[in-house]
Amino acid sequence: MKTNDPVVRSFLTYLKLEKSLSDTTLDAYEHDVELFLRWNREIGKNLPLSQIKSEDLSDFVHWLNDIGLTSRSQARIISGIKAFFRFCALEEITDGDPSDLLETPKLGEYLPTVLTLEEVDAMLAQIDLSKKEGHRNKAIVEVLYACGLRVSELVNLTFDYYFSEERFFRIIGKGNKERFVPIGREAAKALDIYLRESRPHYNIQPGHEKYLFLNLKGRKISRVAVFNLIKELAQKAGIKKNISPHTFRHTFATHLVENGADLRIVQELLGHSSITTTEIYTHISRTYLHDVVEMYHPMYKLKK
Fold first, then answer.
1. Residue ranges of the domains in the chain?
2. pTM for the whole thing?
3. What is the pLDDT of residues 19-30, one digit of tens each?
């Protein structure tokens, strides 16, 4: 923590204690906020934080564009600024959140396929819980959606890395990068039922005892088996999209962003090394908002 600004220091302390963010992520937040404060002093109106308005933040964003920053870099900085002003509003340093309507730039990236909540529910409804593998399959889908895991991370889950009381997974992702991912209540409930009532009846093979998810032969379930399961459920649910286990990872991130989650929190949960990888979900969220307006606004309906 290099900053001498007491508000910024309080902000970073809040993130560290309340959000348990890594030092690298905290450094990124500090950089973004200090950039804005320096702009405010040297180029902007040199206003105290309590007098910053949305118009001032828009001027800052235009300046980011004017100095030639890419859309990715602008989106990353804006994410940090929005988190900072949410904190200022929480601490009543500002009267409300002036960054509330601040838009992130369009990234122009390929948008991955995302499921709606109704489609997730429809897939879950196709699972036959009377079958031996039924509760296992439900737990797999619930965990994929609730935790945003890669399929390789899912099939390698072990009891050593599952903290059932705290409802957390310890995940070792790409490049041996470690992260802790919380498990939602519904997913934890489905997983508990599978582990308690179903898995003990599997004929578990030597060397596979530590793995949470097993195939019917008592061995660690394969990535191909999970892929086939997801394809089958999507087909039965009548979903025409091209669905794979990774679709649930995209859906997890998109639904978080749509509901107001900070981009860097999503980055931590997904285990992305760079926030530029995570920024695609801000674009998906904006696309979703346009779709909602087109679907429900009466003027759009009249034009159809």
1. 6-90, 117-289
2. 0.61
3. 778 888 888 899
